[in-house]
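Sample intake sheet
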Amino acid sequence: MTEPTPTARGQKIRHGDFSTLCEALDYAATCNTGFNYFDGRAKLKSTLSYADMRERAIELAKRLVPFAEKDSRIGIAAVSTPEFAVLFFACQYAGLVPAPLPLPVTLGGRGSYERQLQRMADTGDFHALFCPGSMEPIMSSALNDQAIPVMTFEQLNELPKGEILRPFMPDDLCYIQYSSGSSSSPKGIIGTQKSVSANCLGITKHGMDMTDDDRATSWLPLYHDMGLIGFMIAPMMSQLTVDYLDPQDFTRRPISWLQLISDHKGTLSYSPTFGYELCVRRWRDDRTLDLSSWRAAGIGGDMVRPEPLTEFQELFGPMGFSEGAFKPSYGLAETTLAGTFAPTGQGLLRHTIDMERYERTSEAVEATDLTPPGQRRTFVACGHVLPNHEIEIRDFDDKVLSEKQVGRICLKGPSVSPGYFRNRQATEAAFGSDGWLDTGDLGYWLGDQLVVTGRFKDLILWHGRNIWPQDIEWAAQAAAPHRCGRACAFAIGGAGDEKEVMLLLECRTRDPQLLDEIYKAVMGAIRLEVGVPVKLQLVPRGTMIITSSGKLSRARVKAKFIKGEIIDLQDETPLRVVSSEAG
């Protein structure tokens, strides 16, 4: 039986100090490490050593060079298989720009997926799309109005083979990674060899403090920056072995993620908060786990919620999981991936503030014994900025703010993307000519560590207060945790105080009596904890629209609601909304 690639490199570790991905893979191929792919029951399916990956990538690159001109964009279905990894790096040796594409299952139905793919193709100007045979019909259907060939992975081996390689140089592009579209249409974020190399060096040497004994485990999608950079490119750049679980298998059997860590002594793994929450919900006490090797349990991709993480630690602490292993971080695809990391071993550095003061003055003042429970909110520090990078917290007049003053998070450094592919308007809106990126996020300094409070676009302005939709959503979910799923809060109607705050809450029941109980419990919790009049609608499971990175897309759920396409479980009819919405 095939054994997974080992943890030991057999060579000296290098922390991503390479000028190109090809140079990095040339070195990684001299090591014993690589990628391992497991099924939903944590059983090994296949392995791909770095040596094998390089050999196969070069062989395929010799077929791709005659197929497309240098810098042509190639869309690739980002499946968690050896074929995707080989093809991604074959593009590097062939001088082609890979654009990892999301998979249909994550985007809420075939029609939605096809529209998403069409928008990506419109902006990406793809030379071709490559995918598994099973996906060819849906991709061809999505692009039936465009002269873009769709080819299966198997068909690529039939392309005429040349003898020339055309590897990217240090000043060249690396990839195009599409934003998840949580608040807008997806934008193609440009990754360069320099920006990717800089971020991988920061991640492996400074953020994760990587050593010879580390081994990574991941279920993250490879079309999202946390999966693509954090658990495919950065590991290769540091010769690290990775054990993969397909995202769909994780959703069905989340404990298999923990089983892989236990079985293979994984030390590094990341997830948005909801991944840890899902493990707690699905745990059945039907196996023995040893999580003592897991030294860095990263949290990224969304707001860090301390309550579910505390529950995870309490449940899995007796199985060796250390509270200090939690490693909150902050980043976004526009900075390649990472911007800040909490110090190793710190765990969750909590900061509980007075929300009434915050909503009035935008100051993060600590809650006191006199602060009512409903006015308390606990944030988690996301750590220090990477070396050679800068972060400033600014107000809307670009004044730099001091500690505990909430403002726009702006970031500068070698990891920052040059912008969005063929989207000058969006690039000019986010990327300044002075090299500073306006992230669109809000936060504040807690000492020398960054605290992220949310997206500016999600903020609800109500009667002079700054209301975070997450506060409403989390209060609703906490009021009925066993029968409810995702929640989504947003404002509809006119401007200013004329707006109405809407809350949609997914329910796992259609029983009228239970729905009535949920409604009363949630409304009571909202009044007590948030103090904002909310119109609550209980909706079926699967109503929410989730981005490719697992985030709630409030903008798209709101649009769906306004179109009258959401069912109200308490009267089983689609809701029709007449809105004077101005944006």
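Comment: The mean pLDDT is 91. The two ends are 58 Å apart (CA to CA).
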